[in-house]
Structure formats: C-alpha cells, structure tokens
Amino acid sequence: MRIPYAEMRAEFTRILLKNNFSEERAENCAEIFATNSLEGIYSHGVYRFSRFVDYVRKGFVIPDAEPEKHSGVGAIEQWNGNLGPGPLNAEFCTRQAMKLASDNGIGCVAIANTNHWMRGGTYGWQAARKGYVFIGWTNTERNMPAWGAKESRLGNNPMVFAVPFGTEAIVLDFAMTQFSYGKIEALKTEGKELPFAGGFNKNNELTNRPDEILETMRGLPIGYWKGAGLSLLLDILATILSAGLSTSELSKREKEHGVSQVFIAIDLKKLKNYPSIESTISAIIDDFKASSTITDGAQIRYPGERVITTRNENLKHGIPVEKLTWEMIQQM
Questions:
Q1: Which keywords has UniProt assigned to this entry (predicted)?
Q2: Catalytic residue flag (residue 70)
C-alpha cells in the first residue's frame, strides 16, 4: 500500500504528541521520519518508527531533553545530548557545526550521550543544501566482527559525506557493514534476501539471509579488513572527541542508547576557489557518468541521485509500506 507523505507525517506527529513530545518537537521529529521514508530510506523511516516510540516509552529516549555544551575551543565543541531524541540532537549539532564553520571556515561538534540519528544522510542533505560540505559519523553497539574474528566487537558506525550540487547534493551515507542493520531488518520484514552476502551465519559462513545475520549480529565489513579498521578508528574518534561512550561500553547496556557522534561542516564560501567550485564538481560528475556500463540501459548514478527520483515518485504516488506495519502504527 502507499501512504501520502502528509498523512504519514501527521500520523507520526499524533503518536509523538501522545508520548510527551511538545508540539514543535513532535512535528520536527515526525518530519524527519516521514522525509526519510519519502526519499526511500524506509529502514530508518516508517519501518523504524515503532521501535523509536518503544525506546521513548522505556526511557532510553527522553522527549524533552536538549543538548548542553560542555566545552569548546576554537572551531570545536563538545556537547552532552542528555539522551534526547537522536534526530533532533543531530539536527541541532548540524546547525551548530555550520555556525562554527561560518565563523571559522570549518566547525566540529562532537556529542556524547545521544541517541540513534536514524538516517545520517538527513543531516548531510541539510548542510549541503545550505552550501556546506558535511562529514559526520556515529558509533553503535557491537554488530560487526573484526576481520577474521568469530564474535562482534566493532560497531557498523555509519558515516556521511555530503557536498552541494546545484539545488540538491551529492550525499554518501553508508554503514561499515555491507548493508545497514535497518536495511537487513526491512528486507526481513518484506520477506526478501539480500542481493549479495551481507554477514555471517552461526556456522561462520557468508550468507544473504537477513534472519541468519540478525541471529548472529555479525555483519560483513565493507572492504573486509579495511572496513573493520575504519570502523575501529571511527569509534575511537567519536569517543575521544565527544568524551562519550565507546562501542564496547555501549554494548554493556540493555539497549543501544547514549551513543557518541561527530558533525563537521566546511563553509565553501570561505575558500579562495569558491567561484569555480560548482563547475569543478559538475566536470567531475560529467566524467563519472560518462562511464560505459556493463549492462545495456543501466545508469551510472552518483551517491544521492536515486534519492531525488524516489522522492518525486513517492510524492506523486505515496510512500510504499507493508500493510501490517502501517496498521500497527495507526494503532499506537
């Protein structure tokens, strides 16, 4: 079934208001979930919403908690998220990083004790549309093994890069596992297998079955040992820059909450070559898209390009969602 964007956003707002969100915070949070769904990131939109509300009800997410600044020097600041809603804390940190970048050319905001930001690309889009380069990442609980290890001791620590591109943006939003766990859970809900191996089963074999990966919580690192190494460094940096919890410490909790995140913005207008940046990016993308395709009729897309197509399609026809999932949301 397909649900109009406005209806989905209104339904999310209604539920958040019932769960102690102020009107403004409910509307902002609902808009993030609905927009994630509109743009095709259903795993961190409509399919994640029920779990988000469950975490609110269990006290892992505190609806009215706002970030507090702990320290700052030059273009870097450390904040405490106070276990507030991850998407709202992430929006705040993105704005603060852009403010620092406007003053200094670059700004870095690291936040401890926050919650899942849902779709990290959301904040890349927000910054890039305002003319900023964006780099951000978060640590997570353990869900990925070091290369050659039997048990998971690394997080899949999603990372985002974004640059302005015309009226839109080029946005690379990726977890350190071949597939995000949100995507794996969404495919399980839809009764589908992964298109490629995405993790290990209990027999230490690579598998493309979502249920087997969710059973072991051993996702396949991107680039094998390279992805595992990158995950480790992202966890170290998020932890020390925010003075927050590491993946190891987060994994001792009943549920993942209180994560550490980093938000970096660069104000391109401060650069001497700013007048030529747009044409430079366009030339790079033109060359990239001139690639010959293996399959006739296939398209070469830059990161984030598919989002634009999906957004327009879902605005026109409605957001696709499993009927049972939507009925459960309506009953909340």
A1: Oxidoreductase
A2: no
Residues 85 and 168 in one domain: yes
Each residue's pLDDT tens digit, 51-101:
999 999 999 999 999 999 999 999 999 999 999 999 999 999 999 999 999
Q: Is pTM beyond 0.90 here? A: yes
One domain, residues 76 and 154? yes
Do residues 152 and 105 touch, judged by C-beta distance below 8 A?
A: no
Other CB atoms within 10 Å distance of the CB of residue 80: 20
Rg, the chain, Cα only: 20
288-294: long-range contacts, CB 8 A cutoff, minimum separation 24: none
Q: Which position among 44, 70, 116, 317 bears the catalytic label?
A: 44
Helix (H, G, I), strand (E, B) or coil at 21: coil
DSSP 331: T
User: At CA 206, angle to CA 208 and CA 151, rounded to 5?
Assistant: 115
Could you give phi then psi for residue 160, rounded to 5 degrees?
-135, 135
